[in-house]
Each structure stands twice: as C-alpha cells, then as structure tokens.
Amino acid sequence: MPTVLEQATQPAQQQQGEYKPTAEEQKFEKFSKQILAGTEDVWTELFSEQGAEYKAPTLVFFTGAVQSACGSATSQVGPFYCSGDQKLYIDLSFFKQMDDEMKAGGELAHAYVIAHEVGHNIEYSTGLLNQVHEKMNKVSETEKNQLSVRLELLADYYAGVWAHHDDKNYNSIDDKDIEEAINCAQKIGDDYLQKKARGYAVPESFSHGTSQQRARWFRKGLQSGKFELQPTFTIPYSEL
C-alpha cells in the first residue's frame, strides 16, 4: 500500500485513461464494486448512528499509470486514495500480483485491500486526516512517519470493522477467510517488505506499521466492530 494520499468522495463508479481489463480483471472489477458497495452500506449505517452522513469514495480503475489530483502514479504503488479529487484508484492487476507474487490472495484479503483504502476515507470524513496531515508538516521525519503509521493502522482497524459488520449481516467470513486476510496484512508490513527487499529493516523509516501491528489492528476491528474515532492515536507509539 502506498503512503496515504487521501480524502473522501461520491459513490459513483468511474473509469479513467486507457483502462483495458483482461477477462480475469473484469471479475476483479465486479468484485471491487461489490466490496465498495458493501463498505458504503456498513459505514452509512455506522455514521447514521452517530448522527452524521457518510459519503463513499469514487472507484477509478486504471491500467499501468494514472493521473490523479495527487499527481501521477503507476500500478507499482498499489491501490491508493487521493485527497485532491476524492477517489480510490485501483489497477486490477494488483489482485493477480497479490495471488501470484505476494502469496497473499483470497477473497477477504482482496476485500481488505479495498476496505483499508476506504478506511482513509473514514479518517477524512471524521476530520482526523486533515488534522494529522497539518501536523505532519510541522514535525521531524521520524515523527511524520509515526503519524503515518497511526493513520495506516487506523485504516486497518476500520477495514476490520467493516468485515465484522459484513459478516454479521451476511455470514460472509469463515476461518480460512480470516487467515488469508491476516496473511495479507502481514505481507504488507514495513518490516516484512524491507527485509525482503534489502535483508534488514529500519524501524524509524516505517510508514505503515509492522506485519504484527497491521494484523493486530485488523483483527481488533474484526473482533469489536466498534466505530472508534482515534484508537491508534490515544496510546503510546510503543504500544501500537
């Protein structure tokens, strides 16, 4: 997952650029739209319980590279959420990469990726995201990375909250699904990725959280299903 680029947006579906899906990617496209709709259902209800209105992100599919309001990006960054145009961008080849290269596939694992990016939309919708981004501009690089980790782990938590309610409504998750989602969370931890790339990890450079942290916060959301505003910001960094 790339560093957060976020904001919120409207529920319409949208495509951009030279989007040319393969037959397999067409299946992933349908799946992605279903998951996004499912997150909208859950978060609309949870926001309503708080007396607030939820606005879902727009889903944009692209192939290879795309120009967003946050700048240009290639498929190498993975799915991302841009604050400038309020859209969630996905190159559907990423799901095949998850399956074949990362060995992190599975339906809930794929859904987790989408729900995590939607989680940043939740952060924006509550006002937290802009507050943290403003603070990031005033602190050291290490402190900035720590704030980024807190945002990313909160998005993992919100992905778990969505999964909790989706399972509650549709009995959609079994133990195998959970194992696959946890495996995915671990495969995108900063420590795992850095060790895989260069043989060692540099904790002060982490921007998304360790494998253990990412799996832990997803599981916390999955188990509780509680819409908490800032759980990753109310405890010491060392306890994340």
* Termini separation: 19 Å
Biggest β-sheet, characterized? 4 strands, mixed
Order of helices and strands: EHEEEEEHHHHHHH
**Shape assignment:** globular
**Mean of residue pLDDT?**
91
Percent of residues in β-strands:
5-15%
User: With helices defined by DSSP (H or I, 4 residues minimum), what is the helix count?
Assistant: 8
- Sequence stretches where pLDDT stays below 50 over 5 or more residues: 1-16
Strand order, biggest sheet?
Answer: 1-2-6-5
| Strand segment count | 6
Structural class call reads: alpha/beta
Estimate nothing, just give the exact number of structural domains: 1
Helix content: 40-55%
Roughly how many Å is the radius of gyration?
A: 17 Å
Explain this structure to me?
This protein is α/β, with parallel strands linked by helices. It has one domain (13-239). It is built from 8 helices and 6 strands; from the N terminus they run βαβββββααααααα. Strands 1-2-6-5 form a 4-stranded mixed beta sheet, covered by helices on one side. The chain has a two-stranded antiparallel sheet with strand order 3-4. Strand 1 (13-15), helix 1 and strand 2 form a beta-alpha-beta unit. Helix 1 packs across helix 3 (107-125) and helix 4 (128-136) packs antiparallel against helix 5 (141-170).
